[in-house]
What does this fold into?
Amino acid sequence: MSIINYASREIQFKIVYYGPALCGKTTNLSYIHQRINPQNRGDLVSLATAADRTLFFDFLPLNAVVIKGFVTKFQLYTVPGQVIYNATRQLVLRSVDGVVFVADSQWEKMEENVESFKNLEENLAKQNISIDEIPLVLQYNKRDLTNIAPINYMEYVLNNRKKRFQSFEVISSTGQNVFAALNAVSQILLHKFSKQSDVPSTVAPPVAIPVEPPPQKQASA
It folds into this structure.
């Protein structure tokens, strides 16, 4: 649930990157953090345990004036992918405004993708949130690998609900469509917020603009 501070004219939104272990959630946030102008971002904070070095969530506020008269702050979090840390997933999901579900495109990861998506739906339900109502987009990550499932199959197993989610083919290691997915979920939640509140709505620009384009490969002479 977004937090509105009328005194400071500030709105704070929380976006959670959800998905199975090693699907690329951390890579997403690392890329976003690297590409944002340092003046518009906070520190990237990592939390880990001795038992699992991949157990952490990242905190990243992105500042942009996207609603007339109000400064919006976006906080980005990841959840641990390991099943045994479901309590931590539930904690991170508290007061969530939008979700980016990161699926691993490799064939052998399909079962984990489906289980993680079901787990997301269950954990949202515990907060009385329907997965069909929360702003959510799908990332089909690691599209640069060779042993990947075709997009139509991934749509069949993950995006087969009556309400279809917007989806993106992503290579988080290079940044391909990372910002596209973030901007899409941000636009959805801002539109939902403006409809449910008395804050004047306006068309929101992309919430995260890279400092410079990714380096291009030089053509051979």
